[in-house]
Design brief:
Layout: E1 3-13, E2 17-23, E3 30-39, E4 50-61, E5 67-68, E6 72-73, E7 87-90, E8 95-108, E9 113-115, E10 124-125, E11 130-135, E12 143-152
Antiparallel strand pairs: 1-6, 1-12, 2-7, 2-11, 3-9, 3-10, 3-12, 4-8, 4-11, 5-7
């Protein structure tokens, strides 16, 4: 099994968005290994707020308004990921299907957020499916987020 990362940097967010969307191919399932989210614009006490995150599996329709991304293997000797159609920072959220929230949390924007589940808690995504890491809050003002999501294929 190879490990890949999807990253985004200094993306302004003023409304809920799918930070990362991973569609699995018909031949491969994946496991989410963890993520890290931070921001670079909210430094003072007055800017303190909580942002909700959800890992959602099962949407049938892709989001839009973001950018395409090619997963990066952490080991340069590994082959390219079989996942195509990866998207980051979709401002129109993935929808329809049978969405299931696999992980829900909130984090303080000034502290950032890291989630690295134990091996038994790593969510799996079946073949021909989709998983999104969604910022499910509307910030008080635009925040520039950066982050990395790691998955195993």
């Amino acid at each position: 099994m190879a490990v890949y990362v999807v990253t985004f940097a200094a993306v302004a967010a003023a409304a809920p968005q799918d930070l990362v969307e991973l569609p699995t191919p018909a031949t491969r399932r994946i496991k989410i290994l963890g993520w890290e989210i931070g921001q670079s614009t909210e430094a003072g006490d007055a800017a303190d707020e909580q942002i909700r995150l959800e890992l959602i599996r099962g949407h049938a329709t892709s989001g839009s308004g973001g950018s395409a991304f090619t997963a990066i293997p952490l080991d340069p000797a590994e082959s390219a990921s079989l996942l195509t159609g990866i998207e980051i920072n979709n401002t129109t959220l993935a929808s329809t299907g049978t969405p299931l929230v696999l992980h829900a949390t909130a984090f303080n924007v000034r502290a950032g957020h890291i989630w690295i589940p134990t091996p038994d808690m790593r969510p799996s995504v079946a073949v021909s499916s989709r998983v999104v890491l969604r910022m499910n809050s509307t910030p008080a003002d635009s925040i520039s987020f950066s982050g990395s999501l790691y998955f195993e294929e």
